[in-house]
Amino acid sequence: MDQFGTPWADGVASVSQCPINPGETFVYRFKVDKAGTYFYHGHYGMQRSAGLYGSLVVDVAKGEKEPFHYDGEFNLLLSDWWHKGSEEQEVDLSSKPFRWIGEPETLLINGRGQYNCSLAAHFSNNSSNLPSCQLRGDEQCAPEILHVQPNKTYRLRLSSTTSVVSLNLAIGNHKLVVVEADGNYIEPFEVDNMDIYSGESYSILFRTDQDPSQNYWISLSIRGREPITPQALTILNYSPTPSSKLPVSRPPISPPWNDYNHSKTFSNKIFALVGSPKPPPSYDRRIIMLNTLNIVDGYVRWSINNVSFVPPATPYLGSIRYGVKGAFDPKSPPDSYPVDYDIMKPSPNPNGTYGNGVYKLDFNSTVDVILQNANGLVDNSSEIHPWHLHGHDFWVLGYGDGKFATEDEKQFNLNNPPLRNTVVIFPFGWAALRFVARNPGVWPFHCHIESHFHMGMGVIFAEGVDRIRKVPREALGCGLTKKMVKIK
């Protein structure tokens, strides 16, 4: 949600508001100005990893129509789940020596998943070698089955709130037509399977044109990480076939987890729907952000241009709006990184610092951000990073491999780039995006992988804060603004 006019309703502790303490309430009242598929989640610590999230769907206004037809719809919220609690995960990630939280035990579809068993165990080539799940269907862990009628078109709304993993979704024997991305209509395109990264939302259409006497698998598989976690499975149930009848074919086989060309091909198929707003032809400011894994004071941290983000005790929105001194680092973070940095080599260990400075953007200016991926602390350890911007949609101008150079601008798509609020950068590659700083407020821009943001992989943009008339007292009652809660 852009939260235009209500930046305090963005819901990010230390940025737009104070954390909501036990026994307190905070009412989020805002205008939804665009139909689409969204979700909400906790933004304090690693509460999303603990399950604080849910779907949020905005219907079209009365009298308006979607640019595509469908007979029914489903909504799937995709996530990952650990046996270890989120507080213990936070301690591990902040320890010296560093302790990685490990891979999730289960992938969840609408909060449901199985552990140590498989719905598809009866296939002899079941790679996981898990026993069959003995389910009656009424257990909390039983899959949520999608019931459909033959020869209909259905809309499937998808949102990924995963904490670590990237996903690939497929429906056995069915084609998928992608029509919406992050609340924006796109030119429809057909695929056999699709990637979805943490922070992203999509709508796809599928036609129930298969044998109605059979049921079909809906599968989720892991992308970009060696898949230790088993597939998540549920069933597309054709009426009047009993939902207890398992599909006769094995679940869809996803592309190899490290087939990044497959992932890039999917991302490069996404274009704005004809008639969508086009980006300004040029930019006023360009910020190049180098993503690296560093060691800062002996701790493993993610950094942007060698600065690892640490949230302040006083929310930025209140401290900037009312000119409170000493609330955060007054020094602006760097707009780029050294030109001689070799992204293919592991990052040197002692080259990072902590910080919580702000990128102050001129109101109504056009900003380009180049996200540059690099090596980690060991050879060939570059990872996928889905980056999410609060308060804005941005145009994705393009992707590239290797180190971004000025001549790469020639391949920018200024004709029909998609509007998104989340963009992925692939290993050892870059992504370019453009947005207009026209939403008064203070907005996080961060990797949507929960542990990465917790470990410092994010920045803060501020624009037009002087145009905000009043910040509600409920957002100010902590840190240095606590004494200001009576401001009128």
Can you describe what's shown?
The protein is mainly beta and 488 residues long. The protein has helices at 86-93, 260-267, 316-321, 450-454; strands at 36-41, 53-58, 72-81, 106-109, 146-148, 153-160, 166-171, 176-181, 184-191, 193-196, 201-207, 216-223, 232-238, 285-296, 299-304, 307-309, 353-355, 359-361, 366-372, 385-389, 394-401, 419-420, 422-425, 429-436, 441-447, 458-463. It has a six-stranded mixed sheet, with no helix packed on it. Strand 8 (176-181) and strand 9 (184-191) form a beta hairpin.
Q: Approximately what portion of the residues adopt beta-strand conformation?
A: 25-35%
Main pleated-sheet profile: 6 strands, mixed
Count of helices? 4
Helix proportion range: under 10%
How widely separated are the two ends? Answer: 27 Å
Order of helices and strands: EEEHEEEEEEEEEEHEEEHEEEEEEEEEHE
How many E strands? 26
Average pLDDT for all residues:
95
Strand order of the largest sheet: 4-3-6-11-8-9
Low-pLDDT regions:
none
User: Which class do the helix and strand fractions yield?
Assistant: mainly beta
Shape: globular
The gyration radius over C-alpha positions equals 23 Å
